[in-house]
Amino acid sequence: MARMELLRCKKMDMVLSLIITISLALPFTGSCSSHVYSRRSDFPEGFAFGSGASSYQWEGAADEDGRKPSIWDTFVHSRNLDNGDIACDGYHKYKEDVQLMVETGLDAFRFSISWSRLIPNGRGPVNPKGLYFYKSFIQQLVTHGIEPHVTLYHYDHPQALEDDYGGWLNRTIIKDFTAYADVCFREFGNHVKLWTTINEANIFTIGGYNDGITAPGRCSRNCMSGNSSTEPYIVGHNLLLAHASASRLYQQKYKDIQRGSVGFGLFAMGFSPSTTSKDDEIATQRARDFYFGWMLGPLVYGGYPYVMRRTIGSRLPDFSEEESELVKGSSDFVGITHYNAAIVTNIKPYFSGYSDFYSDTGITLTYPCNDSSTGLLLDTCDDTPWAMEGVLEYIKQSYDNSPVYILENGKSMKGDFQLQQKDTPRIDYLQAYIGAVLKAVRHERLLCMVIDGFVRVT
């Protein structure tokens, strides 16, 4: 089977993903059968299978046609890391890629727009060549019957905004992000009905401002600058406000005409306690509050979880009454990225003179991998499809039946020529996880409905 870019893109490994719409709610009343997933027709008519990519991992053409550096360009080049200067060369080969999508039988394709290609300085004039590229690409998708799902921000704001005022650390970015979103809604909204404002907001914040291992590379330890005690929470706060501002703009200016939806992205691991002790069970809920509730609490209920407010104190920004109302209910859906399970162990509080996101959680996480040195999501890690079921059920029960899109799911592997011939590990992984989603649809007493060409399970 042809695989879009997985064969020709060597440095930047695109993870095959699912784009599946799930909203968990009412008692089951449909006629979904109960046999295990074995073929595409097991899903209700209209269920969408897709793939995805981010602009920096896919486009390449880093300094062509008016594009200027993003924080990812600066991050990888300053550290002499593999980079996306060429990546999968999608900027030049997007028509070929769409043909591969057609051959693969994709219903949908999720991609992100490079803010620094469309508006190179982050604010001000739109780059006409960047605008032409995205319009042409979207038109190719639509012409071939593939539903475009657009992410506005995937870890990569223009470096100019980082230099001007510190990027997401400064509330000025809320206005600039809203203006950027306005351009996207206006120019692409006639063909795009599904928008995700921020991708994996929690992990972007932790990686970029707590650990310093992703752009912009800020942290308290082993980084040139940063404050892991405060910056993750400031950035997370501003991400939520920027999302809410863009969502309000869409509702007021475009919704009635374009009839689209605006959602927010979250990295969602399946948490389980390491023992049956009460301490580990409480710690597991604390993990969910910090990793999920950090963003979902404000989006659904208008405020941060109590355990975060109690633990973090004044380091956690407050929403004004007006901001709380703006953020609450601002997301039409939650877009989750899910790859793996995490085992939670409680740790006793101790004072080290140093606070960061991890010390605030009061937990340790371990992963079901045989060789932790190779990192997560490789062939050393166990497949844990039950974790997917748990995430969907938890969001259903805890966050007011919020509609959920599974935006990413997959298994990354080390490069191996044999995998190009028969990629059994990933086939098995996807088979198991797709089956887990189908099981959640059938066994969690959910109602199947088709809305806007995607299956929503309510």
Automatic annotation (TrEMBL):
Xref: InterPro entries: GH, GH_1_N_CS, Glyco_hydro_1
SUPFAM superfamilies (UniProt xref): (Trans)glycosidases
Pfam family, one: Glyco_hydro_1
Record's subcellular location: Vacuole
Keyword Oxidoreductase: no
Molecular function per GO: beta-glucosidase activity; metal ion binding; thioglucosidase activity
The keyword Cytoplasm belongs to this UniProt entry's keyword annotation: no
Entry GO terms, CC: vacuole
EC number: 3.2.1.147
Catalysis: reaction(s): a thioglucoside + H2O = a sugar + a thiol
BP term (GO), one: carbohydrate metabolic process
Keywords: Hydrolase, Metal-binding, Vacuole, Zinc
PROSITE patterns assigned to the protein according to its UniProt record, in alphabetical order: GLYCOSYL_HYDROL_F1_2, PROKAR_LIPOPROTEIN
PANTHER family named among the record's database cross-references: GLYCOSYL HYDROLASE (PTHR10353), THIOGLUCOSIDASE (PTHR10353:SF270)
Function: Degradation of glucosinolates (glucose residue linked by a thioglucoside bound to an amino acid derivative) to glucose, sulfate and any of the products: thiocyanates, isothiocyanates, nitriles, epithionitriles or oxazolidine-2-thiones.
UniProt record similarity statement: Belongs to the glycosyl hydrolase 1 family.
Assembly: Homodimer.
Protein name stated in the entry: thioglucosidase
Recorded name of the encoding gene: LOC108848086
